[in-house]
Amino acid sequence: MKLSILDQSPIRVGATAADALRESVALAVAADGLGYHRYWVAEHHGSGGLAGSAPEILIGQIASATKRLRVGSGGVMMNHYSALKVAETFRVLDAFHPGRIDLGLGRAPGSDQITAVALSPAYQPISIEHYPRQIRDLLDFLNATVPGDHPFARIKVIPDGATVPEVWLLGSSDQSGILAGFMGQPFSFAHFINGEGGADVMEAYRRNFRPSAQLDAPKGNIGVHVVCAETMAEADRQAKPRDLWRVRADYGNRGSIPTLEEALAHDYAPHELERIAFNRKRQVIGDPAFVRDRLEALAAEYGVDEVVVLTITGSWEARLRSYELLAEAFGLDARAAG
Q1: Which of these CATH numbers, 1.20.1420.30, 3.40.50.360, 2.160.10.10, 3.20.20.30, describes 2-329?
Q2: Each residue of 227-249: pLDDT tens digit?
Q3: Residues ≥6 apart with Cβ < 8 Å to 297
Q4: What is the pLDDT of residues 202-214, one digit of tens each?
């Protein structure tokens, strides 16, 4: 089974957003040496806890600092952009790092609604019903397959090259899965957002898949939040900062990731404990053997051979150690990965 990483560039208490971005690059370098398959960075705006507002820039930094990893977006939020601009941006990335760039696409704003308006041209957000057309146009721009009778047929995307970024559709519901199948593209299901019914969504994607020029058979993976430590008790402890941060975010406080000490000292209200218990149902938290077995079971349930791991803890050291233990548990080998 392949293991990959999704990085939301978390901002720890006591650190800055710039620190978080530098930690993303450092983690990618470590992942490159540990044998992870791909490294995706997320897009969020207006958040005090997540620093990755420009994945296309962060991708270039990470790809330049690594040698083997596939590097991409998880994902670019298309309602903020034109299809042509995204195609050009990722063609530039591919020109510098041919054959290593992924373009994961999402429908969510990655922000609150006011920020989404401010991000949009003329302060008019692109409506969700235009998303399928955006994806179609983007694929045609990337692959130079714009139909001859299309108004954009004369447009040439620069730069061109021998390779093309691999396009993935990301989602936490059946809508993106259905669209990915219809357009013959890979599909990534965000189990860390929605832990219910994902296997059915993946099966519907496979059932409705139509081969395309880019892909002749269904290809999927799942994103899972994981905290791995030497013992079950230590993993439970290291998961508590994100527990607290996630609860605060649910109630509108989108600040930095708390420290372990702050999370342990917090006086949790009953409704907060209920929310944490609910959130933990879609997470995998434990020692290496437990995490390996649970991820293998989830992969089998979804019928995929790749898991994209998201890990957020209260310290850089605990986060890195979680990925190191996971690599050891799965016997990853950088020489064999790819």
Answers
A1: 3.20.20.30
A2: 999 999 999 999 999 999 999 99
A3: none
A4: 999 999 999 999 9
